[in-house]
Amino acid sequence: MKLGLVTDSVSHLPFAQALDLAQTLGLSSVEVATGNWSESPHADLPVLVSSVQARAEFAGMIADRGLSLSALTANGNQLHPVSGPDQDRVVRDTISVASELGVPTVVLMSGLPGARGDAAPNWVTTSWPPENLGILDYQWNEVALPYWRALAAFARDKGVRLAVEACGGQLVHNVSTLLRLIDAVGDDVVGANLDPSHLMWMGADIPAVIQALGSSIIHVHAKDIRINKPAASRDGLLDTVPMEQAADRAWNYVTLGLGHPDGAAFWADFVYHLRSVGYDGTLNVEHEDTLVNSIEGVTRAATMLKQVVLVEAPDWQPASI
């Protein structure tokens, strides 16, 4: 396995300085966002689409530091009933740029439609009242699956894999919905970007998640959460308090090692379970802790992961008889 950095974690730094940080920390790769929900501080997508020279300069800045580009990220809501087409153009342009650069993976979320006739997305989280099931049927069968089959065909033609990140507030938000999408669209091009933090706050057991997803995992984000027990005990884990009000939220994204009482032991177990299902890709540090300086947080995360990551391929052989 290799360690990398989602450069949006240090979005305030110029691209060169973000790359320098990754190099200084001894990381192997970076992942760069291209738009939609990200302000894309490190990539000018229209320029990368139109200019061979710009793509060469972009790739050269990364390679000159001994780094590779593990993925481009186009997280957004391409199924939004109003702005979806604009966000879809960012997704498709990102796939095209990835293809031109030889980048194997584009990270994105499933998107979330509205109910029929809605002008805003609608995240259905319970099967009651009964109309909720009708909304889900419309979202999946009339919006999401036709879109994703077409997008998968586009990515397949470009030789790029789509790593879908299960996340609250998206149609794909857990293991079952992620596998539903993969099974319907094709596992040759669509797989999982495992960001455990999104599943942690919903109460999922991460080793069980890894075993269930298995070879569908094609990319990984290393990000943690911390349950704020007083708020969670009072209100549960569905939370609409703004992220910056950390003390009032039921859970928060936190720097790796600060979210679990056993600290690095959780991440050692995480790495071992990934190895057990055959994953040997990149673990990309993603920092979204509102209470910790981003450079400090990235540094702490990288330092801890270097203690537990499995770098070399296993070489065990059964004894001959």
What does this structure look like?
This protein has 321 residues and is α/β, with parallel strands linked by helices. It has one domain (2-308): Divalent-metal-dependent TIM barrel enzymes (TIM Barrel). Helix content is 41%, strand content 15%. The protein has an eight-stranded parallel beta barrel, surrounded by five helices. Strands 8-9 form a two-stranded antiparallel ribbon. The longest helix is centred in the middle third of the chain and has 28 residues, at 131-158. It starts with a strand and ends in a 13-residue tail after the last helix. This is Sugar phosphate isomerase/epimerase. InterPro entries: IolE/XylAMocC-like (IPR050312), Xyl_isomerase-like_sf (IPR036237), Xyl_isomerase-like_TIM-brl (IPR013022). GO terms for molecular function: isomerase activity.
Note the main attributes of this structure:
321 residues, alpha/beta, TIM Barrel, eight-stranded parallel β-barrel, two-stranded antiparallel sheet, 10 strands, 41% helix
CATH-defined architecture: Alpha-Beta Barrel
Strand content is 5-15%
Radius of gyration: 20 Å
- Could you give the distance between the termini? 32 Å
The strand line-up of the biggest sheet is 1-2-3-4-5-6-7-10
Q: Helix tally? A: 11
Shape: globular
Low-confidence stretches: none
Under the CATH scheme, which class?
Alpha Beta
Find the count of extended strands (DSSP E, 2+ residues).
10
H and E order: EHEHHEHEHEHEHHEEHEHEH
Biggest sheet descriptor: 8 strands, parallel, barrel
Briefly note the structural class of the backbone. Answer: alpha/beta
CATH superfamily: Divalent-metal-dependent TIM barrel enzymes
- Number of structural units classed as domains: 1
Report the average pLDDT across residues: 97
What is the fold named in CATH at topology level?
Answer: TIM Barrel
Fraction of residues in helix: 40-55%
GO molecular function: isomerase activity
Keywords: Carbohydrate metabolism, Isomerase
Protein name: Sugar phosphate isomerase/epimerase
Domain Xylose isomerase-like TIM barrel: 19-306
